[in-house]
Amino acid sequence: MTEQTGPRQVQSVSRACEILAYLKENGACHLTRIAEDLDQTPGTVHTYLSTLRTAGFVQKEQQKYNLGLAFVPYSKRIKGQTPLYKAGKNETDRLAHKYDAVSHLTKEFDGQIVTLHEISGEEAVGKKLHTEKQERPWFRIHCTAAGKAILAHLPEERVNSILTQRDLPAYTSHTITDPEELLEDLQAIRDRGYSVNDQESMYGNRGFAAPILLDSGTLVGAISISGPANSWKDELFTDELPEAVMRSANNIEINLSTESRNRTGGQFTG
After folding, report:
1. Alpha helices of 40-177 — where are they, by DSSP H?
2. pLDDT tens for residues 128-142?
3. 84, 149, 195 from 211: Cα distances, Å
4. pLDDT tens track for 193-219
5. d(Cα 122, Cα 99) in Å, to the nearest integer?
6. Which backbone phi and psi does 224 adopt, to 5 degrees?
7. What are the transmembrane regions (predicted)?
8. Fold of the CATH domain 11-69
9. What CA–CA distance (Å, rounded) separates 157 from 71?
10. Cα–Cα distance between 11 and 114 in angstroms, integer?
11. Please, what's the largest Cα pairwise distance for the chain?
12. What is the CB-side half-sphere exposure of residue 269 using CA atoms within 13 A?
């Protein structure tokens, strides 16, 4: 009998989770591709997919498998229980509607940026694109305003770990792909209090973000706003929008602090 070196695991559950994680990362895929990439037989993968499909966690369309709608209520419940979501949703909505833009409330997870809430103004440019991207609510940390605002305020060893373990692919000719250049940009972000995405993740799109910090200085996330490069210029680009996103971040910080004090009977715990 071999010595147990870690927590016991149910292999079938681990394999099902592996398949779900694969679909989360890759989107709709054919059975043969899933089996090949996960080094499993098509028959084995098909059994798991069929079981998950029956439960609603996987759906099948045009011979491709994808995550199912059964995840939706879980996602909404998890987001609704997140302190950052509770404290920041209304402010994120207000920012988007004021500037008729797209606004995100985000946090970091596993070296990527996860969207807790996304809202578009009525006439926001790129609204359809952002709506489609909600099906994949995480994105690279190095080329978006929210990602860079968060990266700039993570501990140095965490930043180095992310930059070492993850690639920095170019999405446009403006994307920063050199780690040293990115570190310089992160220092500038810390100095001025906000980040800028000037067509780094998408041509024609500009964005700003500010970190959301607890009273203790602990980073909890970021709020961002994005819009068209052709109209976001002059004082709107250099002054008004950066100040607006920093003000929104501060309002969320106040909400978080107030909620924390209410929970602890007047004593903030950070």
Report:
1. 42-54, 71-81, 83-99, 127-133, 145-151, 156-165
2. 444 444 445 567 899
3. 12, 6, 9
4. 999 999 999 999 999 999 999 988 899
5. 10
6. -135, 160
7. none
8. Arc Repressor Mutant, subunit A (1.10.10)
9. 34
10. 28
11. 71
12. 6
CB atoms within 10 A of CB 239: 10
Contact 87, 117 (CB under 8 A): no
Query: For domain 74-263, which architecture applies?
Result: 2-Layer Sandwich (3.30)
Distance set, CA 76 to CA 70, 85, 116, 133 (Å): 11, 11, 9, 17
- Using alpha carbons, select from 187, 222, 230 the residue that is nearest to residue 206: 230
Helix (H) or strand (E) holding 35: helix 31-37
DSSP 8-state symbol, 239: I
Give tens-digit pLDDT for 49-72: 999 999 989 999 889 999 887 776
Q: Is 34 left (phi over 0), alpha (psi -120 to 50) or beta?
A: alpha
Q: Which two tokens stand for residue 174?
A: 């403006």
Token code pair at residue 169: 């692919």
Contact 62, 234 (CB under 8 A): no
Spatial CB neighbours of 187, under 8 Å, sequence gap ≥ 6: 152
